[in-house]
Amino acid sequence: MTSHTDSSAKLLNAVTEGAEKGVIPASIFGDPDLYRQELRNVFGRCWVFLAHESEIPAKGDYVLRKIGEDHFIVVRDDEGEINVLFDACRHRGVQVCRSDSGNTSHFRCPYHGWTYNTKGNLVGAPLWRNAFGGMSKEGNGLASAAKVASYQGLVFGTLDESAPPLKEYLGGMAWYLDLVFGLNEHGVEVLGPPQRFVIDANWKSGAENFSGDDYHLGTLHRSVWEIGAFPVPFHENMMGYHIQASPGHSLSFSMAQDADEPGPNYFGFPDELAQSFNTTNISADQLEVARRSRVFVGNVFPNFSMLALPMTEDGSHHPPVGILTLRTWQPHGPGQVEVWNWFAGYKNLTPEQKDRAYRAGLGTFSMGGAFEVDDTEPWITVSRTGSSTAAKLLDFQLNYEMGKPGVGISKPVKEWPGPGRVQWTRYEEGVQRNLYTFYAEMMRSAPGEWPSLAFGEDAADTGEESQA
Ligand code: FES
Ligand SMILES: [Fe+2]
C-alpha cells in the first residue's frame, strides 16, 4: 500500500522532472496531503509578506495578518520596532487580538484576561498574587516569528530560525523591487486597508499567474481592450521581458523597445509624478528600465505578488492612470485561497491622483474588478481538475512548454542590466517553471536545510545559450 507521504514524494519528483521538460502534474493544485506539507515546508519556512510599513506608522499601531493559515499580530512597539506575534494566548491558546487593525498599548485575552504589551511580553493577569504569585512572567509572553525584516517598506516574517536573511532570500528580486518601490525618495504608501475575498482556487494559481502569465491577456481579458481600459495593443504588450530573478521569484515587464517610443512609460504613473523619479535610491540602469516599462508584474515566492500598470476606471471618460497593487494568495485549504489586495501609490501623488489610482484599481484588480473577475473563474476549474480522481488515475500532466528551446519566438537575452535569467518577449513559461522547480525543492528540503538561492552555472531552463 502506498502511504500518503510516498504519494506526495512521487508528486514532488514529478514536479522537478516535469518542470525541466515543461509539464507539471495537475494534482499539485488539489492534493490535500501536499497542501498540508506546503503549510509546513513552504509557509512554515519561507519569508512571507505581512504588511506595508505605512499601515502601521505610529507606535502601538497593529494589523492582524497570516502566515500560512495562522494568525499573527504585526505591531509597532513603543520603541518603534515591528514585532510579529503569534496570536495565541500562552495560557490556553485563545486568540487575543479580535480586530483587523488598530492602535493599542496592550492585548488582553478575552478568556481569563492575561495581558501582553506590544512586544508580546506578559505584563499582568487578573488577581495575579492569588492566581500566579511566584510564577515568572518571563517565558509566558506571546510567541514571535523567528525573524522579521523589511525591504523597501515591505514587512516580511518567517517562522524558521534557519532562514537566510531577507535580502539574501529575495536575491535578484531585490533589484526589481527597488525599481518599483524606490523610484523617488518619498517612497510608497498603501491607499487604505486591503480588500479580502475567498475563492475556490489553489493559492499557486495566483502565484504562477503573477510570475508572468501574459499569454492569457488577449483571450481572458479581451474585453478590457475592447472597452479601452488599457492603452497598449495586445501584440505590442506581449513585447517585453520575462525574468527569473532568482530561484522561485519571477517577474515580467511589458516594455517599449526604445525609451522614446510613444505610449505610457513608468508604468503609467502621472507625468508630474515621474518628474520626481531620480537616482537617489536606485541606479541609472534601474531608472531606465522603469522608464521604458508599461507593465510590471511579479511574484516573490511563495505568495506575494505585485502589479504596476496604466489602467483606467472608465475607458471612454478617463485617460489611464498608473495603479500599483500588492497582493497575497493566502492558503485556505487545497481548494481555497483568500486573496488580500492592497492598492498603493507614491506618497507624493496628489490626493486627486491617489483617488483616481484607487478607483482605477477598484474597477480592474479588485473583488468586483474586470480583470479579477476574469482571472478567478478559470482558477476555480484548475483546482477542480487538480483534486479530480481522473487527474490522479490518468497521471494528468499540464503543459508548461512555452519558451523552451524551439518552442515559440522567445529567446534568452544576454544584454540586460539587472540580475536573473532573462527572455525577450513574454511568450514564455520559464517563469512558471522557475516557481515550481523551487517549490519542489523547498517542499523536499529537511528542516534546517535550504535549497540554493542562486542559479547554478547551467542555464538549462532558458535554452542552449548561457546567460550573461
Ligand atoms: S486563555 Fe488567555 S487568559 Fe486564559
Ligand atoms: Fe489576468
Can you describe what's shown?
This protein is an alpha+beta fold and 468 residues long. The protein has 15 helices and 22 strands. Strands 12, 13, 14, 15, 16, 17, 18, 19, 21 and 22 form a 10-stranded antiparallel beta sheet that branches. Strands 5-4-3-6 form a 4-stranded antiparallel beta sheet, with no helix packed on it. A 3-stranded antiparallel beta sheet has the order 2-11-10, with no helix packed on it. A hairpin with a 5-residue loop joins strand 18 and strand 19. Helix 1 packs antiparallel against helix 15 (430-444), helix 2 (32-43) packs across helix 15 and helix 5 (173-181) crosses helix 11. The longest helix is centred in the first third of the chain and has 18 residues, at 4-21. The chain is globular. The termini are far apart. Fe (ii) ion binds at residues 216, 220-221, 371, 375.
Quick structural gist:
The protein is an alpha+beta fold and about 475 residues long. The protein has 15 helices and 22 strands. The site of fe (ii) ion (FE2) has 5 residues, from helix 13.
Helices and strands in order, then pairings?
Layout: H1 4-21, E1 23-25, H2 32-43, E2 48-52, E3 61-67, E4 70-76, E5 82-86, E6 101-103, E7 106-108, E8 115-117, E9 122-124, H3 128-132, E10 147-151, E11 154-158, H4 166-170, H5 173-181, E12 188-190, E13 195-199, H6 203-210, H7 217-220, H8 222-226, H9 234-237, E14 240-246, E15 249-255, H10 271-274, H11 284-292, E16 293-300, E17 304-311, E18 321-331, E19 337-346, H12 351-364, H13 370-386, H14 389-393, E20 397-399, E21 411-412, E22 421-424, H15 430-444
Antiparallel strand pairs: 1-20, 2-11, 3-4, 3-6, 4-5, 7-8, 8-9, 10-11, 12-19, 13-19, 14-15, 14-22, 15-16, 16-17, 17-18, 18-19, 21-22
Helix pairs in contact: 1-15, 2-15, 5-11
The chain binds FE2/S2 (inorganic) cluster and fe (ii) ion.
